[in-house]
Amino acid sequence: MNERATLASVVEDLVAANRILAGHGVLDGFGHVSARHPDRPDRYLLSRSLAPGLVSADDVMVFDLDSNAVNGDERRPYLERFIHGGIYRQRPDIMAVVHSHSPSVIPFGASSVALRPIYHMASFLGRQAPVFEIRERFGITDMLVREAAQGVALAEVLNEHAVVLMRGHGFCAVGESLAVAVFRAVYTETNAALQQQAIALGGTVTYLDEGEARLSEKTNRGVVARPWELWKARFAGGGGR
Amino acid sequence: MNERATLASVVEDLVAANRILAGHGVLDGFGHVSARHPDRPDRYLLSRSLAPGLVSADDVMVFDLDSNAVNGDERRPYLERFIHGGIYRQRPDIMAVVHSHSPSVIPFGASSVALRPIYHMASFLGRQAPVFEIRERFGITDMLVREAAQGVALAEVLNEHAVVLMRGHGFCAVGESLAVAVFRAVYTETNAALQQQAIALGGTVTYLDEGEARLSEKTNRGVVARPWELWKARFAGGGGR
Amino acid sequence: MNERATLASVVEDLVAANRILAGHGVLDGFGHVSARHPDRPDRYLLSRSLAPGLVSADDVMVFDLDSNAVNGDERRPYLERFIHGGIYRQRPDIMAVVHSHSPSVIPFGASSVALRPIYHMASFLGRQAPVFEIRERFGITDMLVREAAQGVALAEVLNEHAVVLMRGHGFCAVGESLAVAVFRAVYTETNAALQQQAIALGGTVTYLDEGEARLSEKTNRGVVARPWELWKARFAGGGGR
Amino acid sequence: MNERATLASVVEDLVAANRILAGHGVLDGFGHVSARHPDRPDRYLLSRSLAPGLVSADDVMVFDLDSNAVNGDERRPYLERFIHGGIYRQRPDIMAVVHSHSPSVIPFGASSVALRPIYHMASFLGRQAPVFEIRERFGITDMLVREAAQGVALAEVLNEHAVVLMRGHGFCAVGESLAVAVFRAVYTETNAALQQQAIALGGTVTYLDEGEARLSEKTNRGVVARPWELWKARFAGGGGR
Fold it and tell me: What interface predicted TM-score (ipTM) does this complex get?
């Protein structure tokens, strides 16, 4: 990722992120990925309402942190853009947000069993991922984060974590760049599948210790470009060698 | 989907539905999808006996609600067309029916554990999907719905639900359009896989509350065009971007 | 399948069977499929030692029922050709044999839990598939069926069944045609995966009753051409539409 | 594999091994495979830091057994090259090493349940695969084998085995050729998935006896060229038919 990201390069990466996440099945017809505007921290970039695998640069809209489209853009936005606005407001360090219904993660959002890092690739999970139970503050809903207050509530449960699960719905992964957020979304899915299998073995499971997770997470950030380049080459027609 | 569906547009959608369901593995060499005739509510459209992935417009036959081919069409029909006739007769609101042996759903048809919505994408399941046990009324059979009385019995168990499981056989998903029925068939498969994984975690599982399911289902109907367009583009050579 | 099968048509189908089974992952680098010679019931056709996905007509060798190559063919045969010879000798009704290490089936060969038909597509399993435990008669071996006596012993456990599991090794599926044997091999894999998931749900599981299995099996034989044509079209460059 | 391997042929096989393992998903953006230098037993060949699916001959670097790059090559190496150096030093019989985070294997590294051979394809596992618990000697780390002492410690746990699991991290498979090490890495993944499923069935599981494993392993070495040629043809643009 470019140190001095320009709007054009962020849009290009955002399109790549859509294609990569669709290619992995982390996004299907639903879910979305956004990036904070590189020049305006009070703006974020997100496609119009469209399946992620079909997103191109022309589809990208700009929103303020209340999740209102700016520049008079009247195209149909995602219903759940408030997820992104809520998180960007709460977490100034975050530059990218993925919201996904990735399959293996759904069981952990619905179960009393916590999602924990079973290997170093998912060390960003720390001790465990928090779960946003929308019923607690909003009662019986259609499960969507469809207003600003819900986005803020979700961001509060996310707190300083990298991932927040959403009961009966999906999860969000965040990062200081698109490459980091995409990495976390992909390996949240993988970790969930592997943790489920480990539990099914019936023995005791050793998870990453919090210290191990912290050290590993620091290391992983240094190598995040490697899968990003691979995935761009494979899914986004990128210039990988 | 076109508000004023013409026969040609329904046939085109029906071919797309066959390709999409085959592409997802919801249909393999077996199973089928039908649509009610747009101008004649007492007729329905269904391919001749052919693997769904190979169906073209020329293969579509027209049947009356007793599941007799009309127009003197003597091509070999599916043995189980009575599923479709039975449901269209019982449910005037239904415009499309999918019958599938989709893998993850089979265990729930055979198990005492009910299929329930573990996330909002499967909110059409309501509280839980009913199960058609063919032995109850028909004793020892070859498991197929191969006569009108069996189709009617199946439709009675379906009742007002969106999905009915068939013990030792498969399931049916219905909808007020092909896009809705296909959406439900795909996410029935996904929900089944995820519910199985959630149960295997060994903790307690929170399913969608009936109120949540009802509200979510209403929302989902508003966005069903998004995956439909994606899937047409991917599997049916559609004009998606 | 042709009623009056010629040698050329059987070889063509045998190549297709290799490609179809490789395409489904039922065969990988190992495993093999054979056909009885259409004019000489005391001969069978089997590729030289080669990964099934790479087999062409030129690779097909002819063996007698002692599994000796005839016509002076000195190419390297599969070590386990005795499986085929043993079964063709024991079962005059059988015209095709698949030997596979297909993944989901392996656990049932190693487990005390029997493989049973969870849905009508696998009704050929009858009450349950028998298991060949090579230790019983041959003690500690390399697990392979590498001599005539072992092939005969395997065929005896197969008896009148359609499928026999091999502990710690794989399974065999047989049929009165290549289309039937391939169908059974594919759905043995699927049934195993689904039965495992059904058991993991933790409730009670209702399997096909023996009467249901018998009736369903008869029906399925009437429609076996449908997946065969589909699979030829998809995996073997066949002329399906 | 060539009996008199030349440097050029080993590099060619090493590139193929990278592509094959990436094609199987045994390597993704991470993990790596190396070969001992055919003329210099105190040297090994390993790509620069790059996703395995993108590796070409030009990316191959040469290291000494302390895992220092030779020939003044200053390209960025993998952080965990010490795995390879440690094993080549400890095991003069070993000519190739795979390090992987292959999904189904991770649960066994984290669980108290041992990875054992459930079928003959994984007979190289012997009685069971040992587990390297990095905490035992190195305390709280970032989980990586990033210094020579850690590589030596890992090699000591590997001892005379073909595979060593790494808790919370992955595993290594070794062999007397690239074809053998790749075979073992692929079937370690498969065996892990199948053993997990067998355990989930809830009955008793019969694993390969140590004598069976030893005999089978000897047989398998004789046929390792068959999948290697298949996989080269499929994943590495090789000259298989």
Answer: 0.93
